[in-house]
Every structure is written in C-alpha cells, then in structure tokens.
Amino acid sequence: MIVDIRKGSPSFGRALSIELSAANRKQLFIPKGYAHGFSVLSETAEILYKCDEFYHKESESGFIYSDAAMQIDWKIPADKVIVSFKDQQLPLFASCKNNFEF
After folding, report:
1. Domain containing 91: what range?
2. Looking at the 3D structure of the chain, how many domains does it have?
3. Is the model's pTM score more than 0.85?
4. Most buried of the four, 8, 40, 69, 88, by CB within 10 Å?
C-alpha cells in the first residue's frame, strides 16, 4: 500500500494497494513523497527493498494503519493483525509529520 503525502498534490491522501507475490512477479517503485506499508497475506514472506538515502531516524514518521479516514483494506481480519508497538503509537493521517510538497 502506498499513500500520496505530497501537500498540494491532486492525489494527496489517496491510497493504492497492489499485491506482490512470487507468482505474479510484480515489483513496486515508491517515490519520495509517498508513505508505504506492507501486510503479509501468506504464512511467510520475504520483502526486499532499496533506498535512495541512508537511514535517518529524525526523518522517520508515519500514520496509524487503522485510520478509518483512509479506508485502507489490509486484507487481514482484525483479530489476526500483528502490528509493532512503535507503529501502534503513530498518529492519524491528518496529524502525521510531513514535509513533502507537490
């Protein structure tokens, strides 16, 4: 799932979900200005990704996966969701830290 977080963008706040699997062999490029998250729909998964910058903790941000305003279908029943403590503490989309401009 990716969400356009570029202020002033015509698609600001819109989410796009795509299923990636070994069977469909799809990949996804996520440009700067897009939030992203993953849900694993199988028993196991391998996620490989490349970054264009070194990790910078002070730049890290996000929004809570379950924000009702975003209407994101993670395709996982609520009683099966496993989310890290760190990600459970994230704010709603409307309050998330964001420095990206369109």
Report:
1. 1-102
2. 1
3. yes
4. 40
